From TrEMBL:
UniProt-recorded name of the protein: PMR5 N-terminal domain
Transmembrane domains' residue ranges: 7-27
Membrane topology note: Single-pass membrane protein
InterPro entries tied to this protein: TBL, TBL_C, TBL_N
Ranges annotated as biased composition (Polar residues): 50-59
Keywords attached to this entry: Membrane, Signal-anchor, Transmembrane, Transmembrane helix
Trichome birefringence-like C-terminal domain boundaries: 145-432
Chain positions covered by the region annotation Disordered: 50-75
GO cellular component, one term: Golgi apparatus
Amino acid sequence: MKPSRGKLPLSIIAIVICIFAFVGVLYTEDTGSLSSAYLLNLTSTCPKQEDPINNSSDSAKVEEKTTTTSAEENDLNDIDEEEKVVFEPNKCNVVKGKWVFNSAAQSLYTDLTCPYLDKQVACVKNGRPDFDYRYWEWQPDECILPRFDPTTALEKLRGKRLMFVGDSLQRGQWQSFVCLVQSVIPAEKKSLRRGRSHSVFKAKEYNATVEFYWAPFLVESNSDLHIIGDPKKRILKVDSVNKHAKYWVGVDILVFNTYVWWMSGLKIKSLWGSFANGEEGFEELDATIAYRMGLKTWANWVDSTIDPNKTRVFFTTMSPTHMRSADWHNKKGIRCYNETRPVLKKGYWGSGSDRRMMNVVSSVVERMKVPVSFINITQISEHRIDGHTSVYTEHQGKVLTDEQKEDPQRYADCIHWCLPGVPDTWNQLFYSYL
């Protein structure tokens, strides 16, 4: 009798293929250059042989996983902690990850211990009753993000000027950074001078400054110092940054942002040439077109003025807003009001971040001669519907009254962030690049 010609089991075939692939790598590569990450990726593609006895129970477990809602169960297939590598800016994709609750996390400051916070972002002082929003930590899938060490940060800034440039979201990142580093500086060795457009924190022992310059559009506008509340009356000079840029010269580390002021939903009145006749000489442009023109003006200034051997340039990507609770399937919600947990679904993206505007930034930056590093906060912040100031903020310079807090549809601020809070994570990312 001839032996039967049954087909080999697929699992055996897969194992044989993996063995040949591994042997092939050994012969074609210098084994000294093989990284552990490469080997992990290679071996992870080889399936484990299934136990036929437990196969049915495993299927049941898989089905159970698909119906759970906790962050831990949704992420069972993530890389194990011991397989993660130390953070390297050009290799780790920080966007891919998850927010993990850590009740043991201790902030380096609070809005009661840091004397430099604006009332606008001091949520606990303003009556916020919950605290969980402070204990969520961002964990990338592929690497371990280093914790913010204020002493190390100050050493890296010794003898240097760091300046944050942009809008009120950028001011929040600046205040976060100041509060993080000031926590290790004695009172007599630090100071803060506030100005209408330019504020300077000094760490005297380190001969270092952490500064903020107000330029919400980066380019000049008639709403820079004397803020015009009505977007219809704002006029931008999209071909000039000169009035602002004179403050940026000689700075060692520049961190720019601009986004939310462009998102009025209206056409933007844009002007070329003389600003004196701005009431008559403007053209109304779509936001993305005006935004591209403004960013090109900024990029041209950077390329023509900055010496990359002396100055490092960063750009903080857009900070998302959370105005539509339907985005995260809370149809009875009122914006971000009363939200106390992040959205845990991986890759969540709401309506508060305009991808077209993000594409404008990337397309302008990739054509620049001077290298610009992105502090990519958008995707990670999309999840944090719980981190906004909501009704625990101020309106027209005064903390909201109890009556105003009961009207979140009108008063809930779902643009700015509580401090300590989400902007501390932005600075943790920034610190990793310093």
